[in-house]
Write a structure and sequence with these properties.
Number of helices: 15
Strand content: 15-25%
Oligomer: single chain
Radius of gyration: 23 Å
Largest sheet: 9 strands, mixed
CATH class of the largest domain: Alpha Beta
Strand order of the largest sheet: 6-7-5-8-9-10-11-12-13
CATH superfamily of the largest domain: Mur-like, catalytic domain
Distance between the termini: 54 Å
Shape: globular
CATH topology of the largest domain: UDP-N-acetylmuramoyl-L-alanine:D-glutamate ligase
Structural class: alpha/beta
CATH architecture of the largest domain: 3-Layer(aba) Sandwich
């Protein structure tokens, strides 16, 4: 744990008691603050209280006594309208901060010689894999590495701050919205496509939140930024012109005269202006696909900015195991390969998976994001059959009708059985059943992790009771 001493002896409100809120409350208590923690859920409050978190109904307290409000990233800050606690804080002049902001202030309070290295990663897609890959490379280079933020343990649950440590922090737009003091030695922005517009209101607000990752950087710091979408390409141009920090463009779609490219399975380093092939991604099974090529290019750029030798990076690519629920190989039964890509919660993420395989038996559906799957039309010829589940099944069937054979499976267990039967009967060499839902999971599952775990459970069950052929509406 990283104790937060800034508010020692003062009253602090903490609202939202999921993973980050609980960590913030514990860190504040450890630092001597008087914590008043609250959540709208009775069940969540009870769990927090059982874990020793001081529970206090902040709705009935005098807000003028609070030195700060620590707000969970998932609580609406501005759109569609501020949560009532945000309104209360603003009306009484109480500063609103995140757990990331508490962490940043603790780092900033340290002597410069004791300050750890901070690496932040954001982007619509790929930030978890890239964060984990950077952490893996640094560990392979012998560094003292901690991985947290929007991945794994909350940042304040990490071991105490000290010189020589490297903190790799995955940062969502929600977290960045609430952060103003964070200065990253290396800030990585992978890509931007429409997402979370129900929270940010429009793309300009979403992009503005992401851009905050570069706040406070100086001449010694690095911005590693993708240039394969026009949002990030524009920001890269702005940063290069401003010349505040070093800028390393990265791409998986074009050869760059300066930066890092991932093309034809090769990582090409042109950071110095001279292009050199430095790694072969064919030797890195967990980094298949164009999207993972972009992740690898970004991780390479970040590691080189931190002084890691290119040969160590190339070797680390080959030993990276990948993350659960991201093109995770989940077994082979009767020659049929199963791939768990449950993390693909929007169409853009599903597109990355569909681009990897020339032909798939595709399981999709759930709570659709804005735009649905219309943008996946270029991949429809790759889909042998689609097995639709959840709330979006009807809408997805309408889009696919006449273009792709469809089975209205309804639920994941039925989809796995039907896809397996059809793939096994196809006679194709090594057919692939791909769960890449292009949807959020909350209509049928607790989370995308739960959805992926259920998929793996249903796949494992096929070994025990192979399904009979089960057709569906075409």
């Amino acid at each position: 744990m990283i104790p937060i001493t800034e508010f020692k002896g003062r009253d602090v409100a903490v609202f939202g008691l999921a993973r980050t809120g609980m960590a913030a409350a514990r860190a504040l208590v450890a630092g001597g603050a008087r914590v008043h923690a609250w959540d709208d859920s009775d069940v969540t409050r009870a769990k927090a209280e059982a874990a020793g978190i001081p529970i206090s109904d902040i709705n009935s307290r005098d807000w003028r006594s609070f030195a700060a409000l620590v707000l969970s990233p998932g609580v609406p800050l501005t759109f569609p309208e501020p949560h009532r606690v945000v309104t209360l804080a603003e009306a009484t002049g109480v500063p609103i901060v995140s757990d990331i902001e508490l962490f940043a202030r603790a780092v900033n309070a340290m002597p410069a010689t004791q300050r750890p290295k901070l690496i932040g990663v954001t982007g619509t897609n790929g930030k978890s894999t890239t964060s984990a890959l950077i952490a893996h490379i640094l560990k392979e280079a012998g560094k003292d590495v901690r991985l947290g933020g929007n991945i794994g343990d909350a940042i304040l649950e990490q071991p105490p701050l000290h010189a020589g440590a490297y903190y790799v922090i995955e940062l969502s737009s929600f977290q960045l919205d609430l952060t103003s003091s964070l200065r990253l030695d290396v800030a990585v922005w992978l890509n931007t496509t429409p997402d979370h517009l129900d929270r940010h209101g429009d793309m300009s607000a979403y992009v503005a939140a992401k851009k905050r990752i570069f706040l406070n950087q100086g001449a010694a710091d690095w911005a590693v930024i993708g240039v394969d979408d026009h949002y990030c390409a524009q920001i890269c141009t702005e940063l290069t012109r401003a010349a505040v920090q070093h800028v390393a463009p990265i791409s998986s779609g074009q050869a760059l005269g300066r930066g890092v490219s991932a093309l034809d399975g090769k990582i090409i380093d042109a950071l110095s202006g001279r292009s050199e092939v430095v790694a072969e991604l064919a030797a890195a099974p967990a980094l298949a696909g164009k999207h993972n090529a972009q992740n690898a290019a970004a991780a390479y750029g970040a590691a080189r900015a931190l002084g890691v030798d290119f040969r160590i990076i190339a070797q680390a690519f080959t030993t990276f195991a990948g993350l659960p629920h991201r093109l995770e190989r989940s077994g082979t039964i009767s020659g049929v390969r199963f791939v768990n890509d449950s993390k693909a919660t929007n169409a853009n993420a599903a597109a990355q998976a569909l681009a990897v395989y020339p032909r798939v038996y595709w399981i999709a559906g759930g709570v659709a994001k804005e735009g649905g799957i219309e943008d996946l039309a270029q991949f429809f010829p790759r889909i042998a059959k689609a097995y639709l589940i959840g709330q979006s099944a009807g809408d997805f069937a309408d889009v696919l009708r006449g273009k792709v054979a469809v089975a209205m499976s309804g639920n994941l267990e039925a989809a796995v059985k039907m896809a397996f039967a059809d793939a096994r009967a196809s006679g194709e060499p090594h057919p692939v059943v791909l769960l890449s839902p292009a949807c959020a999971s909350f209509d049928q599952f607790k989370s995308y992790e739960d959805r992926g775990d259920q998929f793996k459970k249903f796949v494992a069950a096929l070994n025990e009771a192979p399904p009979k052929r089960n057709g569906g509406a075409a």
